Each structure stands twice: as C-alpha cells, then as structure tokens.
Amino acid sequence: MKKVFPDAAAALAGVVKDGMTIMAGGFGLCGIPDKLIEAIRDSGAKNLTFVSNNAGVDGAGLGILLETRQISKMISSYVGENKLFAQQYLAGELELEFTPQGTLAERIRAGGAGIPAFFTKTGVGTLIAEGKEEREFDGERYIMERGIFADISIVHAWKADTEGNLVYRKTARNFNPMMATASRFTVAQVENLVEAGEIDPDHMHTPGIFVKRIVHLADPVKRIEQRTTRPRATA
Fold first, then answer.
1. What's the angle, vertex CA 142, arms to CA 137 and CA 145, rounded to 5?
2. Pseudo-torsion of CA 59, 152, 171, 201, nearest 10°?
3. pLDDT in tens, 130-187
4. What pTM was computed for the model?
C-alpha cells in the first residue's frame, strides 16, 4: 500500500469529517503537525474534538482552527498561551476537558494499548475528580481516568521511511509517539523521507504498522513560542 502522498491536503483527503475526535501531537509549538492542521482548516470540517497538550497560540498551531470555529471541544492540559481559546471558553462557545499533563499522556498511552481505564492519585480531592469513580488502594484514594482513542492522529516526525516507520527528535518526541498509536488512522508529516530499510530498527520510535499516510515536508517553519533574549554587551 502506498503511504507517501504529495501534500497535506492529499494525505487527509477523504479522511476528515464533521464531528471527529482528532489527536494532534506537539508540545507548545514544538513538533506540531502544522501543515496537517492547515489542511484540516481548509477541509472545512467542523464540530471537531481535539486532543492536544495545548491549543496552540493565536494565529499558529490549533489556534488557526479556533479562528475558524471548527473546534467545539478541547481535551488539553495547558491552554494559557491562547487568548482566543480563553475568550471562546469563557463565552461558553468551546467545551474544555481539562486534564493534568501526566494524566493526559497516560490516557493517550492507555488508549493506544487497548486499556479502557486506569486509576491515579492525581486530582483526588480537586475539581478534576468530580463525577469520576473513586477507589481506595492500600489506604490511598485514587480516581478512575478513561483511556482515549481517537478517529485520527496527526503527528510530526523528524524522519520516516516509505513504510511509515517514524523517528522523532528531541522535544518533538513528546506526545507524538503515543498519539500515533491511539487512533484508527494516523497521518504523519515528516522532515526527512528515506527508502524502506534505511532506518536502523533500533532507532525507530513508531513502527510503520500504526501509520497510514505520510507527507514529506522538507524545511518546515519552526516557530519560537516564547523568545527570550538579553542585550548585547556594549564595547
């Protein structure tokens, strides 16, 4: 089966539909599948639920889907960098399922591993625990969290071969590997594409069996979310 597609729009053609749950990898603006996000915007699909560590920033990442109001719900752990997100949430226009970051990562991993639920101490006695089953183990209180399994995962990888085996680099190796396993249909945008057999099996992070389509996007724009500088020393 041919997995390599000429561009992001072609890679998502016939896949994205209204009302879907979509996982989007990345941490802040690092390792986000930006071109695939743009293709989802251009598809016009609406009423989407997105599972992502954050909601991008104004004008970038998932922020562009907030601008077009294609997202109806976010399952996230951090949303503090996006003013539009806050505005829509406070106005009751956007649903938020707020999840501690480690719990979110484990919910995704569990979904990919076929685990429907697990118990954790994180959030016990807080708003996070409201409406969730609670049990006691060895004298400690735990709440039950559900695994997450999506319709589509969109991820960003540093390298891939034509069979869909993926390698991530540094901070981009965060939510991307887990999300690639936790949906029915994974699409990857990759910076470097090589022929099958050219990646050392010991270096692969996501086996190609999880990846349905690939788009090669050389020289991606890598934005800096928070630029911090210091004045140059004067002569």
1. 130
2. -150
3. 999 999 999 999 999 999 999 999 999 999 999 999 999 998 899 999 999 999 999 9
4. 0.91
All domains in the chain, ordered by first residue: 4-117+149-216 (3.40.1080.10)
Report residue 221 as tokens: 């724009």
Show the 3-state SS of the chain.
CCCEECCHHHHHCCCCCCCCEEEECCECCECCCHHHHHHHHHHCCCCEEEECCECCECCECCHHHHHCCCEEEEEECECCCCHHHHHHHHCCCCEEEECCHHHHHHHHHHHHHCCCEEEECCCCCCHHHCCCCEEEECCEEEEEEECCCEEEEEEEEEEEECCCCEECCHHHCCHHHHHHHCEEEEEEEEEEEECCCCCCHHHCCECHHHEEEEEECCCCCCCCCCCCCCCCCCC
